[in-house]
Amino acid sequence: MTTPALIPATILTGFLGSGKTTLLKRVLSEAHGQKIAVIENEFGEENIDNEILVSDTTEQIIQMNNGCVCCTIREDLRTTLNDLAEKRRKGELQFDRVVIETTGLADPGPVAQTFFMDDEIAESYLLDSVLTLVDAVHGDTQLNERQEARRQIGFADQIFISKSDLADAAKLEDLSHRIKHMNPRAPQRRVHFGEVPIAEVFDLRGFNLNAKLDIDPDFLKADEPHGHSHGHKHDHHDHEHGEHCDHPHHHAHDDDVKSFVFKSNKAFNPAKLEDFLGAIVQVYGPKMLRYKGVLNMKGSDRKVIFQGVHQLMGSDLGPKWAPGETKTSKMVFIGIDLPKDILLQGLEGCLV
């Protein structure tokens, strides 16, 4: 008997007014031929129900006329996901994928962790990506005032800057730059309100352990004129305060959500690295939002791909290093007030 394919899941997050509802409406009403189940966090400030759906129904799951399904979380996410998967197995509901909308103030971390920690969920679903919407006009203020907004950036696999046509160009450039410092591995796309082509929303495979580590190449270049990349020797490693950054306004923000990159052409000692990362995750796990790497391990002719969310870490063997390819380990860490020096020195100490 063939095992049924896993149901892809997307987490949609973003601050109030960033266009999540517009994006969801589009996903729910457009004729894209996909049947999508949307799980709405009921405690949200803006409920999509009252705009699209008749909300006086007691039924928790509403089938839309294009075959999409909409349901609100009354208990917890686990229960809702299990119920949906069960109904799908029994043929009571048909849907191809799930979108979970978190409330504007939610931390997407625990939602993402559900897909890894719970065996039952992991047998039915595959987490595809975390999408974060940012309002071009109010984004800066929200990032200044709310840590939740900064965390949502840190978690993202893809960032949509909405209402970009309403913000002035310099302000937009600043916002974009600031976001890149917080999360250099999430591509940014400027969109009109929440209107995004469906192809840019689904099957992004942001959570796949794949051999590609998308870090903006300019971000990596920041430290290259100095000829080597032992991050702890220089503090310009991610040009936080604009020294190597031709961006005059950047130093106005010193956000608590930051990212830094570790690179080395030496191989890691697997046992040492495992011990070190294990210890770091124990201590700093709650502050570690996302971390990901492609590693050169001593004794392996294959790339080792690893990533994590908070305290949960996973690794996988990737493809073989190609003949003549420089075996470079690259890691990116995104978190809240992480001790960069301790981490970089520790990683350095795990090299062979």
Automatic annotation (TrEMBL):
Region Disordered: start-end pairs: 223-251
Alphabetical UniProt keywords: Chaperone, Hydrolase, Nucleotide-binding
An annotated Gene Ontology molecular function: hydrolase activity
Pfam families assigned to the protein according to its UniProt record, in alphabetical order: cobW (PF02492), CobW_C (PF07683)
Matches recorded under InterPro entries: CobW-likC_sf, CobW-like_C, CobW/HypB/UreG_nucleotide-bd, P-loop_NTPase, Zinc-reg_GTPase_activator
Domain CobW C-terminal: 257-351
Key word Nucleotide-binding present: yes
Source organism, top-level taxon: Bacteria
Catalysis performed (reactions): GTP + H2O = GDP + phosphate + H(+)
Keyword Mitochondrion recorded: no
GO cellular component, one term: cytoplasm
Biased composition (Basic and acidic residues): 237-251
Name of the protein in question: G3E family GTPase
Organism of origin: Roseateles toxinivorans
